[in-house]
Amino acid sequence: IVSQKPFNYTLRAQYIEALIANGQYKDAIVNLNEVYRNLNATQIQRPDFELLYLELYSATNNNMEFERMLNQFNVKDSDPSKLDAMNSLKLVDILITMDRLDLAKPYFQKIISDGSTIFKASKNIIEAKLFLLDNDEQNAFICIEKAIHLYPYHKDLTNTLSLFKDNQPRVKKLKQLIK
Question: Which of 4, 35, 89, 104 could form a disulfide with 95 if both were Cys (CB 3.0 to 4.6 A apart)?
Answer without folding.
Answer: 104
